[in-house]
Specification:
Length: 807
């Protein structure tokens, strides 16, 4: 296996050429044949290898000695060859190291090359942190714009407007004369049905305007800016090419439309799309350094680190971001990438902290501090929340995938703007009457996470405090729920049903839409309801055995906010199937280090429950729906099939399209390329023996022949193409042959026809292969591509193999 990781010398390193060869290629005036006659003396001889001198083939120039543009690149919607990229990078590094000893300038260049990775990480961190800060500030302002405007400075959000006011009191901190609702501004009335209906109407109008603007910008300028982006990023990181997905236009439009989509009040979040935005930043900075722009494998290492920076700024969780990249999105994650991801996440978090978008000197909106420890008996409701999270995850994935499939296969998919407008209209109409759905989802989660202190004015904290009531000191403090709490519970129950249903239809529309925040909101609502129920049970039945030993004197026994936090983690885990990174993100998000065990219990339970109904998370389900060629490392292949069952050609199919090493003409090669759409062709000694020599990529063949016709004299349609070191013996009347040995991969990966498919799948996964040749005793029998492997796996799982559309 190891010997096949490095390509042979003839493939990777151009040979030095004679003076005559170089002058001929420069001037183009002398033909290659006359060139040889002019050469004399040791200069010419020194460049010929002993084999060339003996066989007299030194007169034939391999025009590919000078690499030409685009060789070794890939077409859109194709998979990269990880082994080839790795080999090219090793070769480049070896060349730089040997050159660095020649002069001080070359040594400085080698140092710059070594540092370029860290520079790229610094730039990604700075840009993604800045963009996240700008998005946070813009979303705050535009969300509040649906309800009113600040008269002193229209660009202030409600909170900023009342901060700057001198007339704000602590009890009425949300009310200040500078902030006016639309009804107040237009009619002068704040109360009454007229004012309410006007506010209601304008809320819907603003929501429709924001969502229409978002979907229009996506449709016209950057169709790839829609959705979460994480399924596609996972696929790209596994080696797939989607040109334009991480482009400049996508970055610009995604940033703008993300603000509009979140502000419209739809049930979506900005966290997933921020990973896409950070990866766009990574791709942008890769183009500045040839080390990354010319090597697709190295580029993917940078994108893995960029994904970590995206989560770092989305949740203010740098370590959680690194673990998210490792656990959820990355396919190839060497130790070097781990350090660089850590650095990028650190810079991004530092940049966001400097901007301070929430004004609380924290990286997140949800920062909480609980003062009550949790008790062992509380693990039961925590685990029940985990079960709820797993069930909600399963329901959401099945419902959303069914709706997205319907969108793809029916007329619905032809009207993306109308779909967004209808969903936004329904969301706005149903959300406005309920105060918990009217506000932004982030604010809702923040309120649900909050612990009820003495200064809280929220309905959720409307407990009855009667100073005259006395109880023994070792009993639970008297906090029966007041009417506000019961009203809040009804509103939260309605909000929960609304969020569960509307999120299924919202995720996957043609606007940027993240899933983290809506999933957390569903879990936080359910958790808070459970938390209040446990709290009231503990108050009213304090003499029950499970509650007896709980409390210290004068302390709250149950923290409902903690239940909301655990519920949020459970639902997010149920949908995405994250575990380690989820727990770390949650405790970084809330600062609740003491509550790791409840979070772990809920995350593991939700994963177990959800896995019982189906192994794939929402991102894997969307990858499968779109037919991307993604070989998931988590999938196990347990079927007892062999390579011969999967390879092509199968019985009854035409024979494998191959090239011979020295008897195929340029015309034959061009005809083969025209008639087939294969990504490459095996090269054999002859059609009779079918002994395998190597493998040549289709794109490299096309470019090589095109380049030869332009640069090399005497290449015509009946010129013989040869892949051997020496030219074949041809009659003098034949046109000049074309040597293409340098684009030939002399060590293609091969397996025998009796290799178990379990091993083949493992090889494809771990080495990132595009294709693998099947041989028996050196004779070529067939080929297995990544698409064949995926189709075979789908067939074995009773799924439609034709759903895998790309190679």
């Amino acid at each position: 296996g190891v010997s096949q990781l490095t390509l042979p010398r003839s493939y990777t390193r151009p040979r030095r050429r004679s003076l005559a060869h170089r002058s001929a290629s420069r001037s183009g005036a002398l033909t290659l044949w006359t060139c040889v006659l002019l050469v004399s003396g040791p200069a010419a001889e020194s460049s010929l290898t002993p084999g060339e001198e003996m066989n007299g083939s030194g007169n034939l120039m391999d025009f590919l000695d000078e690499p030409f543009p685009d060789v070794g690149t890939y077409e859109d919607f194709h998979t990269i060859d990880w082994l080839r990229e790795k080999s090219r990078d090793t070769d480049r590094h070896r060349k730089i190291t040997s050159k660095s000893k020649e002069s001080i300038w070359e040594f400085v260049k080698s140092l710059l090359d070594a540092w370029s990775g860290w520079v790229v990480m610094l730039l990604i961190g700075l840009l993604s942190g800045t963009l996240a800060g700008v998005i946070d500030l813009a979303v705050d302002w535009m969300t509040d714009l649906k309800e009113g405007v600040c008269l002193s400075a229209f660009w202030y959000s409600h909170e900023q407007c009342c901060w700057t006011s001198n007339e704000t009191t602590f009890d009425n901190r949300d009310k200040c004369p500078q902030w006016q609702t639309w009804s107040e501004l237009m009619t002068g009335h704040t109360q009454g049905a007229g004012g309410y209906l006007l506010n209601y109407f304008l809320y819907i109008v603003w929501a429709l305007f924001f969502s229409f603007l978002a979907v229009s910008l996506v449709r016209v300028f950057a169709p790839y800016a829609c959705g979460s982006g994480i399924p596609e990023i996972k696929t790209i990181l596994s080696g797939f090419i989607i040109r334009g997905y991480l482009g400049k236009w996508t970055l610009l439009i995604k940033t703008v439309t993300l603000v509009l989509a979140v502000s419209s009040g739809l049930s979506l979040g900005k966290e997933g799309p921020l990973v896409h935005v950070a990866c766009c930043c990574g791709n942008l900075f890769c183009s500045l350094f040839s080390k990354y722009s010319k090597n697709e494998g190295k580029r993917r290492e940078v994108l893995s680190a960029a994904a970590a920076a995206g989560v770092s700024v989305a949740f203010g969780a740098p370590i959680g971001g690194v673990l998210f990249s490792l656990e959820e999105v990355s396919y190839y994650f060497p130790l070097k990438t781990l350090w660089r991801s850590f650095f990028a996440a650190l810079v991004a978090a530092f940049t966001l902290r400097s901007i301070n978008p929430f004004g609380n000197s924290r990286l997140v909106l949800f920062y909480v501090e609980y003062h009550t420890p949790w008790y062992m008996a509380e693990l039961v409701p925590f685990i029940l929340l985990g079960v709820f999270g797993g069930l909600w995850g399963t329901l959401f994935i099945r419902g959303n995938i069914a709706w997205c499939r319907r969108r793809k296969t029916t007329q619905l998919g032809k009207y993306p703007v109308l779909e967004v407008i209808v969903v936004t209209g329904i969301t706005a109409i149903l959300a406005f009457p309920n105060p918990y759905t009217r506000r932004s989802t982030s604010e809702l989660i923040s309120e649900l996470f909050n612990d009820c202190g003495a200064l809280e004015s929220s309905q959720l904290c409307d407990y009855v405090n009667d100073p005259n009531m006395t109880r023994p000191l070792d009993d639970i403090p008297d906090r029966p729920a007041g009417p506000g709490v019961y009203t809040a519970l009804w509103q939260l129950a309605l909000a929960l049903i609304f969020k569960i249903i509307i999120t299924i239809f919202t995720f996957g529309m043609k606007i940027p839409s993240g899933l983290f925040i809506p999933s957390m909101a569903v879990g936080a609502i359910a958790g808070r309801i459970v938390g209040i129920a446990v709290e009231q049970m503990a108050y009213h039945h304090h003499d029950w055995i499970i509650f007896k030993n709980w409390c210290r004197p004068g302390a709250d026994c149950v923290t409902p906010g903690l239940y909301a936090m655990v519920g949020a983690a459970a639902c997010l885990g149920g949908v995405t199937r994250m575990t380690v990174s989820l727990v770390v993100i949650m405790f970084e998000l809330t600062g609740g280090l003491e509550y790791i065990v409840p979070l772990m219990a809920a995350a593991v339970t939700s994963k177990w429950v959800a896995d019982a109904f189906g192994k794939e998370g929402i991102y894997e389900a969307h990858i499968q729906l779109n037919g991307y060629p993604f070989l998931d490392v988590k999938d196990e292949f347990t079927h007892r099939t062999l390579a011969t069952d999967v390879m092509r050609p199968r019985r009854g199919e035409p024979p494998l399209a191959v090239l011979t090493q020295d008897s195929t003409t340029v015309e034959d090669v061009e005809a083969l390329i025209k008639e087939t759409d294969y990504n490459g062709f095996p090269v054999v000694v002859s059609r009779e023996s079918e002994r395998l020599i190597g493998f040549v990529q289709r794109r490299d063949l096309i470019l090589a022949i095109k380049n030869a016709r332009q640069k090399q004299d005497g290449v015509v349609s009946n010129s013989v193409v040869y892949f051997t070191e020496d030219a074949p013996q041809l009659p003098a009347s034949n046109p000049q042959p074309l040597k293409l040995r340098r684009i030939l991969n002399l060590s293609p990966f091969t397996v025998t026809d009796h290799t178990p498919m379990e091993t083949v799948v493992d090889i494809f996964r771990k080495l990132g292969l595009r294709q693998c040749l099947v041989t028996r005793s050196g004779r070529l029998l067939g080929i297995i591509t990544k698409k064949d492997v995926l189709r075979h796996m789908a067939q074995m799982m009773n799924q439609d193999p034709e759903s895998i559309m790309f190679n």
